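Case study B.
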Amino acid sequence: DAGVIQSPRHEVTEMGQEVTLRCKPISGHDYLFWYRQTMMRGLELLIYFNNNVPIDDSGMPEDRFSAKMPNASFSTLKIQPSEPRDSAVYFCASSPQGETQYFGPGTRLLVL
Amino acid sequence: GESVGLHLPTLSVQEGDNSIINCAYSNSASDYFIWYKQESGKGPQFIIDIRSNMDKRQGQRVTVLLNKTVKHLSLQIAATQPGDSAVYFCAEISGGYNKLIFGAGTRLAVHP
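Model:
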C-alpha cells in the first residue's frame, strides 16, 4: 500500500495567490482529515470528511480556506487568497473507521 | 491537549537505555488513545494505541500505560536506538466523535 499521498510536497507562493493542496487517501478508508502544523500552534484539525461528506469544518480558519472531496480517492484544500500567516505544513490523514489515522508526508507551504 | 508549540520538552537518553515519555490528557470521557512518532520532515506515524478499558498494552519494544484516575498516559521504549529520535505525540479521542486531540509533543534525543 502506498499510504496517503499528498502533492505538492513543497509550495512557495506569493501573498494573494491561490494555493491548492491535494490528497489521495488510502484505498478503502472512509475518513479523511486535513491538519495544519505550525511551531506556535502544533497540530490543528481543519476539517474532516466521512464518505466524501464534510462532517466538521469548525477548525477551518476563515472563509479563505475551503476543502472538497469529490470522490473517495481525492480531496483538495484550497486557500484563496493566501497570506503569509498561512505558512505551515499541511497534512492529510485517512482512517478506516475514524479512529486510528494514517498521515501523509505533508505539504510544506511558504507564502511570501 | 492544547499544543504549546515552540518549546517542546526534550528527553535525552543514552542509546540502549529505556525511555519513558509522559502525557497528560484533558478529557475524562476520552476512550481511545494513540501514540504517534514524527521524524523531522515527515508526517506523524502511528506507533501504538490503547482503549480506556485497558491499562497496559505492549508492542514491539514499546509499551503504553494508561492511568485513567489521573488522566495520564505514558509510552515506554525499551533499548532506545538512534532511530527512535523524533517528536512523540499522544492523542485522545472521545467516543462518538472522530476528532483526535493531540498533545504538545515531546522530543526524544538519543545519544550514542
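The interface with chain B takes residues 4, 31, 33, 38-45, 48, 50, 55-56, 91, 93, 95, 98-106 of chain A (CB under 8 Å). The remaining cases will be described in the next quarterly update.
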